[in-house]
Amino acid sequence: MTGSFQRYLRAKRTIDDRALDRRLLGELRETLAARASAGDGPLRVLEAGAGIGTMITRLVGWEVLPPGTTHYTAVDLQSENIAALPDHLDRWADDRPDYAVSTDPLALVGPECRLEIERVDTDVVAYAERTAATHDLVIGAALLDILGLSNLRSLIGTLEPGGAFYFPITFDGGTRFYPAHDADRSVERHYHAHMDNKEGGSSRAGGETLARLQERPGVDVAAAGSDWVVTPADGGYRADEAYALRYILNSIEEAVAEITAGEFDPLEGWLDRRRAQVDAGELLYHTHQLDLFGRVDGSTPSGPDQE
Predict the structure, then answer these.
(1) The domain 5-296 is classified under which CATH number: 3.20.20.10, 3.40.50.150, 3.40.50.720, 3.30.70.20?
(2) How big is the CA angle at 115 (ends 111 and 116), to the nearest 5 degrees?
(3) 149 CB neighbour count, 10 Å cutoff
(4) Are 241 and 278 in contact (CB under 8 A)?
(5) What 8-state DSSP symbol labels residue 29?
(6) Is the sign of the CA dihedral 269, 270, 276, 280 positive or negative?
(7) What whole-number distance in Å separates Cα of residue 60 and Cα of residue 116?
(8) Beta-carbon count within 10 A of 105 CB
């Protein structure tokens, strides 16, 4: 794929910021604050698919994490993502004189908080399966549509009794572009089929995950919409969001070409039109997603999920 995935992760940060449901974030903030008030020691967080660390800086900047020390384990399969995490922290802290980044060990330090960050570049499921149930919070953003529901229990299993999970931006079966094009529905169908055809992948992961969690004993879960809506303003896009759109179009090109073995003739014309619309600041992009937040009480049995 052309383009930098790490730049894409930076470019989509503003899109995620608009999409994330503030009510569920408020519930997460209150849950963590209550734990801090109980004096249970440093907060222990595991983020699966942590990327370059945009969730870390968001949780700090939006004051979701409580004051005090947080042990934050950032796990990602791509070593390039993990390697870029300190640079993202530095860029974020450069604009905020009250915060500083230290190395060896890596830490983000603010007026009332200290995040001690462990970076792990490995498969998140394998890591979760060998990790004891010692975490207070597990996070997986934009993850479950590619990770697979069969691995959900491994992530939940890293939580100690009373721990919380937060799975925002979970794709749930909607990809739309405007103005309308005759090939839109066919492109969407093939694109989603490619997700479904991947091992563990699902184009309706949001609703499927919610249903799975609601069925499990000892789990309390809440959900809210977190749709991406990318619109041009004054003939252009916010921040670096045009790059994010171009990267998404490249992803769709590869996915549809792979699932159709290159036999979907309308794809080239559709892409040409959509890319021209991005360049002209005319394309609107909308995806449907869910944020999921909840807690476990420790009664959920261990072991892999059963289909």
Answers:
(1) 3.40.50.150
(2) 135
(3) 18
(4) no
(5) H
(6) positive
(7) 12
(8) 9
Q: Report the chain's terminal Cα–Cα distance, integer Å.
A: 33
Domain boundary assignment for the chain:
5-296
Q: From first to last of the 307 residues of the chain, give the pLDDT tens digit.
A: 456 999 999 999 999 999 999 999 999 999 999 999 999 999 999 999 999 999 999 999 999 999 999 999 999 999 999 999 999 999 999 999 999 999 989 999 999 999 999 999 999 999 999 999 999 999 999 999 998 888 999 999 999 999 999 999 999 999 999 999 999 999 999 999 999 998 889 999 999 999 999 999 999 999 999 999 999 988 789 999 999 999 999 999 999 999 999 999 999 999 999 999 999 999 999 999 999 999 998 544 444 344 4
**String of b and e for 26-48 (b: at least 16 CB within 10 Å)?**
ebbbebbeebbeeeeeebbbbbb
CB atoms within 10 A of CB 288: 17
Please check whether residue 177 is in contact with residue 285, taking contact to mean a CB–CB distance below 8 angstroms: yes
**Per the structure block, which two tokens stand in for 222?**
């809440």
The rounded distance, in Å, linking the Cα atoms of 255 and 273 is 18
The DSSP bridge partners found for residue 223 are 292
- Cis ω before 232 (30° cut-off from 0): no
